[in-house]
Every structure is written in C-alpha cells, then in structure tokens.
Amino acid sequence: MSALSAARKHAATAKSALKTSMFKWSPDYVSAAHAYEKAAISFKAAGEPAESAEAYEKAAEAHAKAENEAGAAKCWESAADIRLGFFRDQSKGIEGGLAEAKAAAALFGQAAMVYREEGMAAQASSALTKKGQALADGAASLPEAHKERDPLLTEALQNMLAACEVLELHNKLVFSKDTYRNALNLVVKMRRWGDAIQVLSKMIPVYKDLNQTSGSHKLRLSAVIIHLQRNDLTAARAAFREGFDDADYLRSEECAAAEDLLRAWEALDVDEVRAVIARPVFTFLERQVALVARDLSPYNASAQGRDEPLMASPLAALDAKTEPVSSSETLQAAAPTAEAQAVSEEDPNRAGLFARKPAPAPAPAPAPTEPPAAVPVAAPAPAPALAPSSVPEASPAASVPTAELADATQAVSDEEPRQSTAGPKSHVQAEVAADDADEDEDDLAFLR
C-alpha cells in the first residue's frame, strides 16, 4: 500500500471515529486524534504537505476535545513547521509567503499558550521563540518601505523576549541565553539600534546571575559599539562606565578595547579606530555585532533605526493580545464599557485588563427612616388655688417690681417651647420635665 493510500485510509478511520450512532452516543476523540496523526505522517511521506498540515490541525482539535492539551500543542507545532515550509517556497510570491508565515506564527502561539497553561516552561519558550522567528522571517522578506515590516519585527521581538521571561519565571535562566542571542542578532541585523540596547540591558543581568563574567564583558563592549553606531558618544561612555563596580571587568580585554575605542573615536582618528577593531577580542562578539564593528567609523555613523523603548513586560503584552474567549458570556463580559472607553481615550496607559471589566453597580441608597413617635408629656397639674384668707398681704418692702415680674414670666414662657421642640424624650426625661414645670408654676404663683 502506498503512503498516499495509507494516509487516506487513516483519515477515513478518523472521520468514522467522530460519527455517532444508535449505540455510540458520543464521538471517540481519542481514536480520531491518533488516526489523524497517522494520516498526517503518511501525507507528509507521500509529498502532500498541505494535506499533512490540515491533518495535524484536525488531530490537534481532537486532542483538545479529548482534554489532551499537551498532545494538541504538539500537533499545532507540527502543523506550524509545515506552514513554514510553504513560506520558504518562493513560488507563492511575497504576499503568499507572508500569509503562510503569519499562519505558522499563529499556530506556534496557540501551542505556546497551551504549554504555559500546562506548566511546561521549556516547551512554551521554544514555541514562542519559533513564533518570533517565523514573524522575523516574514518581515525580512518584505521591502523596507512595506507598511507591515516594522509591526512584524516588533511582534517578533516581543515574542522572543516573552520566551526568555517564561524561563526566568520558572528559574531556568540557563536556557534563555540562546533566545536572547537570537533576539540580539535579529534587531542588530534589522538595524534597530534602540531595540538592541533594550535587549542588551536585559541580557547583562542574566549573564551576571549565571556567573558568566566573560559573556557579560562582551555584552558591555557590544553596548559601546551599538551606541557609537548610533553616533551617541555620551551614551557610549555611560555604557562603558556601568561595569566599573566589577573588578574583573576592569582587568578584562573588553574593557581595555572599549576604552581605546572611545579615545580614538573622540579624536576622530579613523586609523586608530580600525586598529582597535582589528583586535581578536572583537571576533568573539555576536556575529551581527561583529559585522557592525567591522564597518564602524566616526564619519559614517548614523542614528538610523527605531529608538522606541520596549514595554516592561513583553509577556504581559502578549497575554493581553492572545487572551482566549471561550464563550459568548466571556466575550460580553470582556467588552469595554463606556466608562472604560473614556478612560482609555484620555489615558491609553490606563486601559488594560481592568478597564474592560464593567464597573460595579452603585449600592442603593438606604430608605429614609421616619423618626420615632414623640413620647407624650403629661401636662403639669394646675396649682391648687389658695383661699383668700390664707394669702398673706405683700408688704411694701417685699413687693416685686412690675418690670422684673414681666421678665421672669417671659423667660419661663420662652423655656416651655424650647423643651417642646427638643424632640422625643424618654420616660425619665418626661418626668423631669414635669417636675421642672411644677416648680416654675410655684415660682410664678409666689411672685404673683
């Protein structure tokens, strides 16, 4: 049986495994996934890469429905590798090759997301690196004036740095060195000097944590070269002095070469610059950095390239772009509210994952409570009238002036309404008020 016939037979087996019947109520995703994988391998052996990639994608979907996330990610990677083969086929032209590169990058990104969810840091970093390399290859195939070139390069660099960040989060710094080196060579090759400085600033602490002193010295010399290529002598001096707290760096050949290079650059001595660059220490730098150093001259340096700094966490930015939506409810919950849109328009830096969440509804205001009913106060009992014979006659010396009597009467009358408007009283307060009223009546009776 030929490979093509075997592939079609496996594909038919996978389709039958997905069908349901009276005695088979649910599809057999596990059997379908394995059959599709066999079909993909047979299609590839038969020279049918397009059908092989399609079979791998169907196998990944079957693995995902069978809750075998690692198997799905592996199939997505295999399909992406085949898509990259389509990209390298020049017969499709620039646009066709770019579409295949984007498709491969999307599959690598899906695999990386699944690997991260499963806690497989090494595989996730590898998938992110492949995604960045696919985007970089797609950007390199475009002319410099193409509108998609710079966005693709930026996304490629972010994926490579995100791959390094994944390894750092899982304490696997030793595996991030190669990815950092690939990212550095990429941005230097594309003459993006600002991005190269950002990558170097991330690489130096990693090399120091790994006790790679020789490698960190080479990176400091590379930073001096990049700054001089940007025609920024001040930044080159600052990069040269950053390692002065390291005694090994002060005694290294890289430090001496950087010092001599800066001195010759300040003197505008082209012959001395070429003599310094001809030293063997420059041949041990990264390949693209060594090529830049070979053509370095104070008279042809330029500031061409993009100097926009990268964001602090490329991994967080990547998560914001590739956040999966599993249902319509999740999509509705993630839709930005009017308030979040207003915040993002005023300050884009504040717009993020929290800005997309709807603002919580304000708590209803408590209903106004009616004041408690006032306790009725018993009216004071009238004073008993005295017999006319028992009332002593007032002597002229003890008589009260009419003005004083009027003032006292007015004061008592003012006191009564003040007590009545003071609000509800308790039972004890009511009794005290009644006693005070009795005393006031007695005083008035006495004064009269």
TrEMBL record:
Residues 359-385 have a biased composition (Pro residues). Keywords: ER-Golgi transport, Membrane, Protein transport, Transport. The keyword Transmembrane helix does not apply. One of its GO terms (molecular function) is syntaxin binding. One of its GO terms (cellular component) is vacuolar membrane. One of its GO terms (biological process) is vesicle-mediated transport. Residues 319-448 are annotated as: Disordered. Belongs to the SNAP family. This is Gamma-soluble NSF attachment protein.
